[in-house]
Amino acid sequence: MTHLWKSLLNRNLLALVVFTAALAPQALRAAEALCPLQNATLHGTYLVAGSGTIVGVGPISAVGEVTFDGRGNSIATYTASVNGTIHKGVTVTGTYTVNPDCTASHAESDGSHYDYVVAPDGNTVTWIETDPGTVVSGTEVRLKSPGSE
């Protein structure tokens, strides 16, 4: 009788472990989905500002606006100072991807690449350029929500 009881207990315990293991990834994914809207989290016009250094060139600082369409596309216009030389009205287009954990990536038409952390409400972004030879980071703050533009 003891052997039968142990066998049933082990079988039930195994079933419970398998069931729990099967459900755990879905529960973890749901808990990690800070940005469930993904690309739609970034939607509207944002103030963008950043600064840093381009190795071998010198300091850089920029300020402007970027508009995200909520579908993975962007357009930005900014003024930059690169080692003291002013560049006004620079416009670039780009594509972006926001992940469920609110990390994101952004590539722009000038060849630059960025990693983002997006606030779950989409109102703020902190970014860093990921291209070799750059030490540039900054922030974005939503100025206009979709529909108010």
Q: Care to describe what's here?
A:
A hairpin with a 4-residue loop joins β5 and β6. This protein has an 8-stranded antiparallel beta barrel with strand order 1-2-3-4-5-6-7-8. The termini are far apart. It folds into 2 domains: 32 residues; 107 residues, Calycin beta-barrel core domain (Lipocalin). It is an alpha+beta fold. The chain has 1 helix and 8 strands.
List the keywords.
about 150 residues; alpha+beta; Lipocalin; 2 domains; eight-stranded antiparallel barrel; 1 helix; about 20% helix; about 50% strand
**Low-confidence runs:** 16-21
Largest sheet: 8 strands, antiparallel, barrel
Question: How many separate domains?
Answer: 2
Helix-strand makeup class = alpha+beta
- The CATH first-level class of the largest domain comes to Mainly Beta
Strand order of the largest sheet: 1-2-3-4-5-6-7-8
General shape: globular
What is the arithmetic mean of pLDDT? 86
CA gyration radius, whole angstroms: 23 Å
> SSE order, as H and E?
HEEEEEEEE
| Helix proportion | 10-25%
CATH topology of the largest domain: Lipocalin
CATH architecture of the largest domain: Beta Barrel
DSSP strand tally: 8
Strand content: over 45%
- Give the CATH H-level superfamily of the largest domain: Calycin beta-barrel core domain
Number of helices: 1
Distance between the termini: 76 Å
Give a brief outline of the structure:
The chain is an alpha+beta fold and 149 residues long.
Topology summary:
Elements lengths: L1 H31 L10 E12 L3 E12 L3 E10 L2 E14 L4 E6 L4 E6 L5 E6 L4 E11 L5
Antiparallel strand pairs: 1-2, 1-8, 2-3, 3-4, 4-5, 5-6, 6-7, 7-8
